[in-house]
Design brief:
Distance between the termini: 19 Å
Oligomer: single chain
Number of strands: 17
Structural class: alpha+beta
Helix content: 40-55%
CATH superfamily of one domain: Aminohydrolase, N-terminal nucleophile (Ntn) domain
């Protein structure tokens, strides 16, 4: 795992500054390559082949190709054997060198032969082209700036900002989208002129022109691989899950696993134990508030599989923790598990360099409550409109905030609020935390004039691209292609690499994701039973109560923190931030604060979102993005 950066001009000083800005991604080695028309920078976290032969930028035999690579190629040994049989000669045991030779053999279609997580840039000196690509699912990030013939790229935005010619300007549309979805959807970023290369895309840069193109999409039409029954599917899924986890254990350094006590992480622990006979380290986060803690379940799984278990209790979150997380995220993204994950990664890095995690199971197998909400809404829609919108919704809006995370009244209120949003938002309505009325009250009129205030325009674009026949699989596509990459996976990458920890996500191994996509939606959401076929696959492997337990989530009790430990921080940021003042109506912001502090309503989503915006603006726009140790 590493950090990469570069530009389409010969500028060694810039390359070195960019490398230094992402030192945390690769503390083991640093390298640069500069020539006419290109500069490349690399920070290495040594995982496979710890020798000097793994140093990057890495060249082919005649030096015409120069590679900087971030990620892991899990099929690199098989690919190496195939390439060796075709006459390629290798000097190292790294997956990076395999990628170089794969490009020599297959050209830009080399990405089609890779199984893993990756973002890379390859300078082809013969063609005078820079070729970049990002893995199918978007596990590893890649950002770029392209304007007026200039091109700059990096694993993190803060490295791009080391180029003084890159403007630091707010993207107003991204701000609006972020406050609703709590992340900035690709290809935008919170910076007007910096973009994300979307998942499953590759890009050629030549003569100052950047041309991104997709090379993969998730299809639900692979009938040839579809089992004939749920029982057959569960059996095949067990085998594929075991193989995916085994493939992710390749490492020359110590590894472990994050164990929440939920179904996905418990499944990974079970499969790891099949292949690891010695010590297996597991790491969990807990809270004094039992409604947010899963420690009892995590301990049960740890005891069952005899792991060396480590627990991090979070009884206090400091303003410094919030700001550190924001710095590493590069742009605001208010997933409430970001800070716990940051702190968990810090603890885990004291023991290991590689950690497996359970991201992806909820997306592939319909594990989130929003899938259930969407199914319930089909019955809700049969109620007369005057009853839904004239009686139930207003009553739900008056319900006071309840203290427990999954209080039935809180869930009823959220269901009613999401159901009232436009139907073209599909199940993502229950993951959208604003509405037209709030937008009118919250944003200043002059700021609204700059915006496209159709929040689900991109959701429709993704929905139109999906080839699934049934509604559940169409919703799974939206989660996988729209939500997950820029929210869940961005968080996992940034919070882990902040502490030079590599996180691997075997449930997002693309052959496993494609197999899951081949299954009918009703095998995944059976009635209101989420992840049905996944649970069936784990019967007899995990304890029965773990197999059947509901989704809890790896979260943070933000609504309580804003009323207690982070109250003064919230008041200072929201009262003093020039960005908040310039974009929002202060009377509305103050009302939201009062109602939240009085516990009459839970406004943590918008308040936490605005706090992160204020921090981001102060750190990346108002101040310089100098390198932070």
């Amino acid at each position: 795992m590493c950090g990469i950066a570069g530009c389409n001009r010969n500028d060694r000083a810039l390359a070195e500054r960019m490398a230094e800005a992402i030192r945390h991604r690769g503390p083991d080695q640093c390298g640069t390559y500069c020539a006419e028309g290109v500069s490349l920078a690399h920070r290495r976290l040594s995982i496979i082949d710890l020798s000097e032969q793994g140093r990057q930028p890495m060249a082919n035999e005649d030096g015409a190709l120069q590679l900087v690579f971030n990620g892991e190629i899990y099929n690199f040994r098989e690919l190496r054997d195939r390439l060796t049989a075709r006459g390629h000669v290798f000097r190292s045991h790294t997956d990076s060198e395999v990628l170089l030779h794969a490009y020599e053999e297959y050209g830009k279609d080399a990405v089609l032969h890779l199984r893993g997580m990756f973002a890379f840039a390859l300078w082809d000196g013969r063609r005078r082209e820079l070729f970049l690509a990002r893995d199918r699912i978007g596990i590893k990030p890649l950002y770029y700036y392209a304007a007026n013939g200039a091109f700059v790229f990096a694993s993190e935005i803060k490295a791009i900002l080391q180029d003084p010619t890159v403007p630091r300007e707010l993207n107003p549309q991204a701000l609006y989208d972020y406050l609703g979805f709590e992340f900035v959807p690709a290809p935008d970023t919170m910076f007007r002129h910096i973009r994300k290369l979307p998942a499953g895309h590759r890009m050629t840069v030549a003569n100052g022109q950047a041309q991104p193109e997709p090379y993969w999409d998730l299809s639900f039409r692979d009938a040839a691989s579809r089992p004939r029954s749920v029982e057959d599917a569960a059996e095949q899924l067990r085998e594929r899950l075991d193989e995916a986890v085994a493939s992710h254990l390749v490492s020359d350094v110590p590894l472990g696993v994050f164990l929440s006590g939920g179904l996905d992480s418990s499944a990974i622990v079970a499969m790891m134990r099949r292949h690891i006979s010695g010590p297996l380290r597991t790491f969990s986060v807990g809270y004094p508030d039992k409604s947010f803690s899963e420690l009892d379940y995590a301990k049960q799984v740890a005891d069952t599989f005899e792991t060396e278990h480590h627990v991090l209790m979070l009884d206090a979150i400091s303003p410094d923790d919030v700001e550190t997380a924001l710095w590493h995220l590069d742009e605001p993204m208010t997933d409430l598990s970001s800070i716990p994950l940051l702190l968990a990664c810090r603890q885990a890095r004291q023991h290991i360099t590689v950690c497996l995690s359970g991201e992806g199971g909820d997306e592939s197998f319909a594990g989130y409550d929003r899938f259930k909400a969407s199914r319930i809404n089909r019955a809700w829609a049969w109620l007369p409109r005057f009853l839904r919108e004239g009686l139930i919704l207003p009553l739900a809006g008056r319900l006071p905030d309840r203290p427990k995370k999954k209080d039935p009244l809180n869930m009823l209120k959220r269901l009613a609020e999401g159901a009232a949003l436009p139907a073209d938002g599909r199940h993502l309505r229950w993951q959208y935390f604003s509405n037209a009325r709030q937008d009118r009250e919250l944003f200043r009129a002059d700021f609204r004039a700059e915006l496209n205030m159709d929040p689900f325009r991109r959701v429709r674009d993704y929905a139109d691209a999906c080839d699934a026949d049934d509604e559940i699989n169409r919703e799974i596509y939206l989660d996988t292609r729209f939500m997950m990459t820029d929210s869940v996976l961005m968080k996992v990458d940034k919070m882990s690499m902040a502490h030079s920890l590599e996180i691997r996500v075997p449930l997002l191994d693309h052959p496993l994701v494609e197999f899951a996509a081949s299954l009918p939606g009703d095998w995944k959401l059976k009635g209101l039973r989420t992840k049905h076929v996944f649970r069936e696959a784990l019967k007899g492997i995990l304890p029965e109560n773990i197999v059947n337990r509901g989704k809890q989530g790896y979260s943070l009790p933000v609504k309580h923190l804003l009323r207690d430990q982070l109250k003064e921080t919230m008041l200072t940021l929201l009262n003093e931030s020039p960005l908040v003042r310039e974009t929002t109506n202060q009377a509305c912001v103050q009302r939201l604060i009062r109602e939240h502090l009085a516990a009459r309503h839970n406004h943590n989503h918008v308040l936490w979102g605005l706090m992160n915006l204020a921090l981001w603006h102060r750190r990346f726009i108002a101040q310089s993005a100098e390198i932070q140790s």
